[in-house]
Amino acid sequence: MIETIRSLGRWGLATFERIGRAHIFLFQVLAGIPGLAFRGSLVVQQLFYVGVLSFALILVSGLFVGMVLGLQGYNTLVDFGAEESLGVLVSLSLVRELGPVVSALLFAGRAGSALTAEIGLMKSTEQLSGMEMMAVDPIRRVIAPRFLAGFISMPLLAAVFSAVGIFGGYLVGHGLLGVDDGAFWSQMQAKTDWYGDVLNGVIKSIVFGFVVTWIALFEGYDAVPTSEGVGRATTRTVVHSAFAILGLDFVLTVLMFGG
Amino acid sequence: MIQNKSTEITVGMFVAAGIAALFVLAMKVSNFAEFNEEVGYKVIAEFENIGGLKVRSPVTMAGVRVGQVSNITLSPETYNAEVTLSFYADFDNIPTDTAANIYTAGLLGEQYIGLEAGAEDEFLQDGDVIYLTQPALVLEKMISQFLFSKAEGDE
Amino acid sequence: MPLIKIRDLHFYRGDKAIFEGVNIDIHRGKITAIMGPSGTGKTTLLRLIGGQLRPDKGTIEVDGQDVHQLSHAELYELRKRMGMLFQSGALLTDINVFENVAFPIREHTTLPESMIRDLVLMKLQAVGLRCARDLMPGELSGGMARRVALARAMTLDPMMIMYDEPFAGQDPISMGILVNLIHHMNNAMNLTSIIVSHDVTETAEIADFIYLLSGGKVIEKGSSVQLKKSSSPWVQQFMQGLPDGPVPFHYPGVSFSDDLLSPEEIS
Ligand SMILES: Nc1ncnc2c1ncn2[C@@H]1O[C@H](COP(=O)(O)OP(=O)(O)OP(=O)(O)O)[C@@H](O)[C@H]1O
Ligand SMILES: [Mg+2]
Which range, of B43-57, B95-109, C23-37, C186-200, averages the lowest pLDDT? Predict the structure, then answer.
């Protein structure tokens, strides 16, 4: 009994310590970002790995999610004779929720796990230590550019996801099911608010990008430097990112659309 | 480090695609274009009943959007709805005796405020009040009124 | 005045003591060897000197500066003047041999490309890998990787280099060349070298001074001639590599027979 409580306490302390380390890590990374102004090529390179390589996945997923939305939305709306509102339904669900959330989940799986594995492996093969001894701060040289790249990529990917998804909804709605295309676009425009809907969605994706990249890089940097440790860290990145995305999405939705 | 040229190009294309997507969301999907119009001045109108009117519902005159609803409260004295209309700066020549009605676009469509221009030479200023208002048509009310008058007529 | 002054160093890994009261002086322009059985903490000592680990007690001074009192920026400034060859090589795996050696130059200087090329080729020539410059680290053998790491440690012409097992995995020919290289660099450039190695004969040949570590303490120190004449059976066993003697080969713990006979371990 006492032993159980003790191990619970130990777990709690370890968790708090880890959260503390994650925050110190974040401050160190943020402090390294201004220096990147002179190292643009490092960021460009990471934008390639983090952003460009996730692009195809986001594009295809966005298209299909939009098409399914169009199909399901039409089937529901047509019962009320309101199929003209299909555009609104597709655009609002994508711009407010599905765009930021689904693209962040995909991003965590595609880019986040890769970041963790890469950093974890660099740690376990002493590459990070080696850099330190060459007087190159790995947080500035390796982590900060990846962080910035993730932070920049996520809102762009989410915007692409939403835009392509709306196009997918249009393809199905207009092309397949024959919704009037004037009504589709004009109703959408009338009901989708730039500040309230689109910008709030963008803010969501910026928050998600920040958190997912932070989790991914910290897990890699803090990984136990063994193959098992790196494997676990990679899994944790995906799981913790998913929790963080969905939890934060709820909080942000309440803050933005709740009142 | 030798920077691969094609890396730079694809990254450039990626960023451009992201920005283009945001642009599409702004111009084609949302009301960014209208929204960008500067809010010029605010006017209050009191309605007996606003039906399904909401904040951000459009305010139109002769079908042209001239502003939007920016606030709705309940007046503590009269128990009427106090609706704040924000006019775009361009439309600064609306007569003070303009009438405001609440209409519905289509049978199930959204509600909006339609203005009918008056004849005064003076124009509405920030903080003015529109007195000539007509409440929203509430479907249930209309039906019961109709039935009631039918019943009276039969007697 | 010594370049590195270690005083009363204590360091623990959990409950396990790695160092308990170690004093070491590393003199300028000399080659100092640190030897000891596997697992005594030689790599740990180098990491402590480099400021990557923090001692639990005691001080380490490098060039008059207490390494563990320095600010982040000062520590990095100091590290620019230290070279370190990692036991594992620690090459950056996503860039080729040439870029690995060029890495510290690119990070710390703004030299023109042609000059970087000359410098890198010079260092690679010294370790015999000039023509392997386009290989990726994954395509190198262990010994080759170590030599690339050595070239990289030398690129910035530091005031001191710490070599962690530079000879491990080298064939007799490249071993001889490396021994000469380290010796030669030390004399020609007035470099201070710290060599951690198990190759007693090679190391003793070039080392000006040797420290023997074991059990968290300095067991013996002196020049190789002095050590060879030492009366301590411990030193004799280590220097001659005899299997029997006071140095335990086994990681400390219960005896083998006790371990075999302990039934409670089987649950
Ligand atoms: N990260 C770590 N966590 C816990 N203990 C460690 C860690 N790294 C090393 N140790 C322990 O510290 C001791 C010293 O390790 P170190 O790597 O310094 O040995 P070494 O003298 O370099 O050995 P070798 O000659 O085999 O390289 C070892 O007993 C090892 O078990
Ligand atoms: Mg070692």
Answer: B95-109
Two tokens, residue B35: 């929204």
Q: Report d(CA A82, CA A76) in Å as an integer.
A: 9
From chain C, the residues in CB contact with B2 under 8 A are 99
**What is the value of pTM for the model shown?**
0.81
DSSP, collapsed to helix, strand or coil, labels residue B91 as coil
Q: Which of C89, C93, C104 sits opposite A134 (nearest CB)?
A: C104
Whether the predicted pLDDT of A232 surpasses 90: yes
| Residue range of the domain that includes A156 | 2-257
For residues B37 and B51, give the distance between their C-alpha atoms in angstroms, rounded to a whole number.
27
Please report the pLDDT score of residue B1 as a whole number. Answer: 45
For ligand 2, a single-atom ion, which residues have Cβ within 5 Å?
C 43, 87
Interface probe for B, chosen from A86, A156, A191, A195 (most Cβ of B below 10 Å), is A156
The total number of structural domains that make up chain A: 1
In whole angstroms, what is the distance from residue B136 CA to residue B117 CA?
19
Same domain as C165, residue C150 = no
**Does residue C168 share a domain with residue C75?**
yes
Please tell me the distance from the alpha carbon of residue A47 to that of residue A156, in angstroms, as a whole number: 11
Closest residue by CA, ligand 1 atom 4: C13
Write the pLDDT tens digit of every residue in A116-155: 999 999 999 999 999 999 999 999 999 999 999 999 999 9
The pLDDT score that the predictor gives to residue B49 is: 84
CB pairs under 8 A between B and C: 4
> CA geometry: angle at B27 spanning B21 and B30, to 5°?
95
| CATH number where C251 lies | 3.40.50.300
B138: left (phi over 0), alpha (psi -120 to 50) or beta: beta
